[in-house]
Amino acid sequence: MQSPPNLPQWRCESGAPTPKRVVYGDDTLSADTAYRLMCEGTAVLWQGDFHNARQLLQALARRTQKSAHKKSAHHRNTHQPIDNSTDKPIDTAQAFHLHRQALGQRARVLGLLLIPLDADYRIPLRRAPDMQDACVHAWGPPSSDTSMVSLRELLGLVGAYEWRKKGVEITALGKPPNNRIFPHYGVFSPARGEYIDLVANMPIRDKTLAFDIGVGTGVLSALLVKRGVQRVIATDQDPRALICARENLERLGVLPKVELLGIDLFPPGLAPLVVCNPPWVPARPTSPIEHAVYDEDSKMLKGFLLGLRAHLTPDGEGWLILSDLAEHLGLRSRETLLHWIDEGGLEVLERKDIKPRHGKTTDMEDPLHVARAAEVTSLWRLRTKVNV
Question: Which fold has domain 167-384?
């Protein structure tokens, strides 16, 4: 099978290195042969019909899922996680790590079906759709170089672009159509609305100023302004998030009351209200968008709790919005969380809980179903500890 003489520029959102071996593939390539090549680490740069490439990707996805569908009778009856190699029960934390490992391996294999792009982001293949707008929104203006990208990533990019055009309706922001948040590529969508409901329904004692730590799409900053907060200072390290938040806040008419800063965690100064919705699961993210879900070693969570006291006014409150999924997965205990709160010189004023509404809570086929079914999202009201 022929290898390209000169490889185009490699585009990869996850930061994976350029494949060491790349061969051409076209409509004559069978799914079995492609799967074998990709399992060996060989990428296929597609030269055939675009729609056939999509069908090949679907066939490859089915092959990667076969081992995941192996279920023992014990698993069907008790829903306890099972090690498919031994059919023996495993603990939930091990099940999570095996699940992440399997997803990572699946992503690596499926990510090796590559599509060429011209310098202007056009796809030089038969029956290829026009994806230029989606590429520009994700990567910026085209350069003068041809490139190649994983078909799986390209399709995800287009899906994100459709979400950006459609938006996500947030009931707490008011009546439609002026209540939508438009997430950008690489910025986590506020599709799980329960944490927004917690912030929407918690009384605000002092509305002069609030800090929004990790602004993301800007949804919580917008909500705080809609609830009467006079000024919000919002921070984020991700340039994409800051651009996304600015556009959303401007569209909603609240940008004049929000200051956006590209910094880690806290802005300078003190505030009577500091809000943070950190990533919920202490695991290593494998792509930029996963930073909104996975926080290796609970770095952001600990940084917030250990630094909050220094940024609260004497009677100020910190609102920590956090799912307990990590606890049900055996990745972090409630005792550890309470210890970090205490170590930060904080105490709990109140905790409000809400059950998630997403579909995975009822998906019995999900290998993490037991943990997801028990999950609760909480808003912790924290204040500086009062010395007795």
Answer: Rossmann fold (3.40.50)
